[in-house]
Amino acid sequence: MKIGILALQGDFHEHQTCFNKLEVDTQLVKSIEELNKCDSLVIPGGESTTISKLLVSTKIDKVLTKKALEGFPVWGTCAGLILISNKVIENDPKPLKLINITTSRNFYGRQIDSFVEKINFEDDDYEAIFIRAPKIVDTKKDIEILSSTNDGTPVAVKSNNIFGTSFHPELTDDLRIHKMFVDMTSNK
Ligand code: GLN
Question: Which of 49, 70, 110, 170 is the most buried (most CB within 10 A)?
């Protein structure tokens, strides 16, 4: 099993470190050829407009959308969550529409307004790091909400093979969420 990590821009190395700790094989993905070697893909945090442009210029966008429809697991974190959503309130970037949620970019303000909040994941405390995080402003019926912040905002959502988090699990030592994606990849 090989987990792909989109490596066009953003904090892909941090994700790779987490999967290394779990002793799972990874592939940094910058081309369709590299994507085709993988059993799933993580879209990391970064700048969603930049990643979007690069997804289009490498033509990875079309191949990934087709694969996702066929059951290929995809996990978007932060900028990656914006990119997998069905609709982005600001209409920029144009998302891939892989999961039936609406997101709003930079909802919590600028870099300086980044924060850590204790949430609950798999019945245990989890320290979630939010950096210029998007807010999930709408979820349709088919969406499983795995975690929310204290004000009831969903921050980890799943629909079949598509998973999204508005925070950054790759920046903590808690590997439970990476482990969950490993399980999603091996059970597909
Ligand atoms: N706000 C950024 C964007 O719109 C995402 C920030 C992040 O990934 N940490 O792309």
Answer: 170
Active site residue 78: yes
Residue numbers of the domain that contains 89: 2-186
- Between CA 29 and CA 36, with CA 30 as vertex, the angle to 5 degrees is 55
Number of domains in the chain: 1
Sheet containing 85-88: give its strands across.
Answer: 85-88, 99-104, 135-139
Question: In CATH, what number is assigned to the domain containing residue 128?
Answer: 3.40.50.880
pTM summary value = 0.97
Is residue 70 annotated as part of the catalytic site, yes or no? no
Rg (CA), the chain: 15
Looking at the CA of residue 44, tell me the nearest atom of ligand 1: 8
Average pLDDT over residues 5-26: 98
- Would you call 170 a catalytic residue per the annotation? yes
Would you state the structure tokens that stand for residue 148, as one six-digit string?
A: 């929310």
Pocket of ligand 1 (CB under 6 A): 45-48, 78-79, 82, 105-106, 131-132
162-165 vs 144-148, strand pairing mode: unpaired
Give, to the nearest 10 degrees, the angle between helix 60-69 and helix 48-57.
90
Per annotation, catalytic residue among 15, 18, 38, 78: 78
The model's pLDDT over 49-59, given as tens digits with 9 standing for 90+, comes to 999 999 999 99
Instruction: Report pLDDT digits (tens) over 30-76.
Output: 999 999 999 999 999 999 999 999 999 999 999 999 999 999 999 99
